[in-house]
Specification:
alpha+beta, five-stranded mixed sheet, two-stranded antiparallel ribbon
């Protein structure tokens, strides 16, 4: 899966009741750490964990679409595990004799593995405490990776800073290994 670019994996075990809220916050946090334009920040409070986000209509719509696709995928079938893949790419001139134009070359990918469970009322407090700990560790992973030498060196030269992201962002949702829309 890794073609030479860094891949960061975040594993989440989610309470069915909080799936959308947690995925929304995690995706926003990833984007917050990887968008290089002028970002208007916002926060998400999930299980007493404050997560950074991006206050941008287009970004919010992309996140909502993918969280909705994930939810429909796990709700509609027997499989309660899935992934949301966030891929950051750069546009480069296509090197081919016959094709002109640009191609997108990935420079980093984030994989958010999510498993949905439905804890009993008795288990919920312990489950939520564990999930809060996982979210805190996920934020630490994001901050450490984006500020590390490996995370910084993966970022290509920024040649166009006119938008919130100078690089194409693709999000894909997979449930049971199959991409869902």
């Amino acid at each position: 899966m890794n073609a030479g670019h860094p891949t960061v994996t975040i594993d989440l075990v989610l309470d069915r009741l909080q799936t959308k809220e947690v995925l929304r916050a995690v995706l926003h946090a990833v984007l917050f750490h990887r968008l290089f334009g002028t970002v208007k920040p916002r926060t998400f409070e999930v299980l007493d964990v404050t997560m950074p986000g991006v206050d941008d209509e287009e970004t919010a719509q992309l996140v909502e679409d993918k969280v909705g696709a994930f939810w429909r995928g796990v709700e509609g079938g027997a499989n309660k595990r899935g992934q949301i893949l966030v891929t950051f790419s750069e546009k480069r001139p296509r090197k081919s004799w016959f094709l002109m134009g640009e191609e997108e070359i990935p420079w980093e990918q984030w994989i958010i593995n999510a498993e949905i469970r439905q804890p009993s009322d008795r288990e919920r407090q312990k489950f939520n405490a564990e999930l809060a700990g996982t979210l805190t560790k996920s934020l630490q992973t994001m901050a450490v990776h984006s500020s590390s030498e490996r995370g910084r060196s993966a970022v290509p030269l920024i040649t166009n800073a006119s938008s919130i992201s100078p690089f194409p962002i693709k999000m894909a949702v997979k449930v049971g290994g199959v991409e869902v829309a």
